[in-house]
Amino acid sequence: MMSDIALLPVDARPVTRLLPAQLMNVAGRSVRIPDKEVLGFLKDPGDVSAIHEWLRQQVDQVKGFVLSIDMLIYGGLVPSRVSPIDLTEAKKRLNLLKELKEENPDCLIYAYSTTMRLSNSYVNEEEKDYWSEYGKELWKLSFHSHRLEQTGESDSQRVIEEVTRVIPAHIIKDYTETRKRNFQLNQYLLDEVEKEVIDLLIFPQDDTSEFGFNISEQQQLSQKADEKKLFDQVLIYPGADEVASVMATRMVFELAHEPLPSFYPIYSGEKGSLINAMYEDRPIVESVKGQIHALGGSFEDEGKDADIVLAVNVPGKKQGDLALQLDLKGVHTADRNLGEWLHRMERYINKGKEIAVADVAYANGADPALIPRLLNKMNWKELLSYAGWNTAGNTIGTVVAQSALVYLAKKENKNFQKKNEEVLALRLLEDYLYQAVIRKIVRETAPEGEKSVDLEKRVSGVFLERAQEWLITNNMDQFQISDVYLPWKRTFEIGFLVHQRKDD
């Protein structure tokens, strides 16, 4: 199997480290990825020195790199929010990119650097320790500082004055200095694009809203990129965990000198397509455009002209969150029509069109109203791709990447079917069965404070039992599940492998 790409993920979770490789396998490609042990764990940073050495070892073995700057500099996405290193050290670590380019000038370098998020909560699991006391106040400071700057609304000034009386000055200073360091490094990355060290740069927006320090930073980065005329080399849009899959897919097409496919989106509800997804700052229809543009794909005005029909399942009135059990009643309403949407999909399939499904009715899980209908209505094996995990951007990016790779595999007459079925089964098992059904059950019976070994054992047991039952019920018992674990020792996400039995 060809291995033209070395990929440095943003952390060691399956969706960021293993999923891109699994998608590449569908098209008969493989990627080189570092060992999980050097990539850190939650706030514990990866071994930056070992990572840099690993990248040096790949430079004459591959034709391109897909690199998380957060991992390259700080040791991961979460460490990028808490790392104490200064800007000077950060820039020093970034010099590795020049070294790689000088060693292999023809090598492509695609890089992505996440705009630092703001969590509107008191959960400090992925933030600095003081988030447990001042997280929501810091979010308000961010939101209303930018809102005041943009709109001049006097009530924002009042909120700013209130929260600055509550948050100790040294915490505000520490937080804003960390943001400033990350933002200055991102500005410096634009210079590396201008110097042609970086061939493509993406600033994904991780968990964002209409206003905030992060939105202000994105606006400034966009303006600076425009001033440098880096219109096609720098992209900014909502996402994070899916970016490696999208970038690696785009690189596969570039290295193969193949044009990327065109898409035609169909939505389960017109109103829902115009709703802002949770944790994003724009309507779902614009997130779809952003992900396809990042892939390098294009849109068609009519389905008959498109290579791929992208079926997007949207909420009726408002997107819910299955992990937090929020706004669940605003999803399956009369403002959308799943039956008509599925019928349209079936008609496209009968006409020989390729279908991919992006399920963004909820954040953090698949739509429980959709999956039974989908499996009853059509043969799931006919889908190019399916996903319904985490944010809308995560789901859409995964779906367009996988569907593009299947499209390429068909064009090259590759034997893709079994590998693609495994990825489809994995996403249905994780996004639907675990995230939409089982996670709520295990959270009621397995408290997060339980010892990690006991928690993992209990969750794994429940998942395996339910998953085997579900596979049999849905005539999918040709698949076997192995290596079940909790990547970050919590119930939010689960890791496992799916394989077709050898006798199938």
Write the layout of secondary structure elements.
Layout (H helix, E strand, L loop, with lengths): L1 E7 L5 H13 L2 E4 L15 H11 L5 E5 H6 L2 H6 L4 H17 L4 E5 L18 H21 L2 H13 L2 H26 L5 E6 L7 H15 L6 E5 L4 H14 L5 E6 L2 H4 L10 H12 L2 E2 L8 E6 L6 E2 L16 H13 L3 E6 L2 E2 L7 H7 L7 E3 L4 H20 L5 H29 L6 H22 L5 E7 L9 E6 L4
Parallel strand pairs: 1-2, 1-3, 3-4, 4-5, 5-6, 7-8, 7-9, 9-11, 10-12, 11-13
Antiparallel strand pairs: 14-15
Helix pairs in contact: 1-10, 1-16, 6-7, 6-9, 8-9, 10-15, 12-15, 16-17
Instruction: Write down the overall mean pLDDT.
Output: 95
Radius of gyration: 22 Å
**Uncertain runs with pLDDT below 50, 5 residues or more?**
none
* Largest sheet data: 6 strands, parallel
- What helical percentage do the residues reach? 40-55%
Distance between the termini: 22 Å
**Residue fraction in strands:** 5-15%
Give the neighbour order of strands across the main sheet: 2-1-3-4-5-6
DSSP strand count: 15
What is the number of helical segments per DSSP (H or I, 4+ residues)? Answer: 17
Shape: globular
Structural category: alpha/beta
